[in-house]
C-alpha cells in the first residue's frame, strides 16, 4: 500500500506542503510542468488504477463545464481558508460557504 498523504506532504518534493497552491503544477510559461516523483494520485506498479486514462479527460470536461456555466465565489466579507479538517482515514475539507451563480 502506498501512503499517498506522505507522498503529497513530502517537503523534499513540495514547497509549502500545507498550502493549497494549484500553481505548483505550472511552469514559468503557465503550462503544465512535469510532475514530481511523489505525485501518484492513481497509484503505481501492479496496483495502478485502470481508469486513469478515462478519469483525467473526464475530470477536465466536468470542471470545464462547471466553470463555463457557473461562477463560484465566497460570500461578501467572508474570508475562507481552504484547509483540511482532522484526518482519520482520509483528508476532508472543512465546511465553508460559497455562492454559485449561473453565467448568462
UniProtKB/TrEMBL annotation:
Name under which the protein is recorded: Cytochrome P450
Keywords from the named record: Heme, Iron, Metal-binding, Monooxygenase, Oxidoreductase
Family statement drawn from the similarity comment of this UniProt entry: Belongs to the cytochrome P450 family.
Pfam families registered for this protein in UniProt: p450
InterPro entries: Cyt_P450, Cyt_P450_CS, Cyt_P450_E_grp-I, Cyt_P450_sf
SUPFAM superfamilies, A to Z: Cytochrome P450
Signal peptide span: none
Amino acid at each position: 500500500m502506498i501512503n499517498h498523504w506522505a507522498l503529497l506532504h513530502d517537503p523534499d518534493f513540495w514547497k509549502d506542503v500545507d498550502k493549497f497552491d494549484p500553481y505548483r503544477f505550472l511552469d514559468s510559461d503557465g503550462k503544465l510542468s512535469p510532475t514530481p516523483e511523489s505525485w501518484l494520485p492513481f497509484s503505481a506498479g501492479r496496483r495502478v488504477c485502470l481508469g486513469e486514462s478515462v478519469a483525467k479527460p473526464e475530470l477536465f470536461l466536468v470542471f470545464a463545464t462547471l466553470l463555463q456555466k457557473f461562477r463560484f465565489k465566497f460570500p461578501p466579507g467572508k474570508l475562507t481558508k481552504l484547509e483540511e479538517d482532522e484526518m482519520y482515514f482520509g483528508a476532508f475539507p472543512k465546511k465553508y460557504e460559497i455562492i454559485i451563480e449561473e453565467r448568462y
